[in-house]
Amino acid sequence: MASSMRSLFSDHGKYVESFRRFLNHSTEHQCMQEFMDKKLPGIIGRIGDTKSEIKILSIGGGAGEIDLQILSKVQAQYPGVCINNEVVEPSAEQIAKYKELVAKTSNLENVKFAWHKETSSEYQSRMLEKKELQKWDFIHMIQVNENLLISNFTSDHDLPK
């Protein structure tokens, strides 16, 4: 039986509204802040002790708010170290917002950004096809779980406004 669900990525307005509703009825922000404050420093402390470059892969980076918090913590732990931050995000609108946020944010001189408008599956397939397998110091999928959950709440009656 074929699924009647449409991808939220085909309708950016619907995606944004679904995401807003999800956040209004979840503890995602509190959980994320707790992770950033309590767990992330220990993880970051193990990734770059002897490196001249730290490579970070962000799967589903969204508009970049969480990514920039992570980058700030990495920069604080490893001042002056070059950070290569690659973002895989299927929404062109989210990538545009991410780029706007980067343009407005100071202290990113040592961070190089690369954005890939594709899903994680498309990115993986492309890397395997090109045989461009890379090693990453830190990979995060902050927005991915939200997107999977949100995709289950696409109709107006699924979540209260």
TrEMBL record:
| PROSITE patterns for this protein | SAM_HNMT
Q: What is the protein's known function?
A: Inactivates histamine by N-methylation. Plays an important role in degrading histamine and in regulating the airway response to histamine.
Gene Ontology molecular function: histamine N-methyltransferase activity
Record-level GO BP terms: methylation
> What is annotated about its quaternary structure and interactions?
Monomer.
List the Pfam families hit by this protein, alphabetically: Methyltransf_23
- EC category name: transferase
InterPro entries membership: HHMT-like, SAM-dependent_MTases_sf
E.C. numbers: 2.1.1.8
Catalytic activity reads: histamine + S-adenosyl-L-methionine = N(tau)-methylhistamine + S-adenosyl-L-homocysteine + H(+)
Name by which UniProt lists this protein: Histamine N-methyltransferase
Its keywords, alphabetically, are: Methyltransferase, S-adenosyl-L-methionine, Transferase
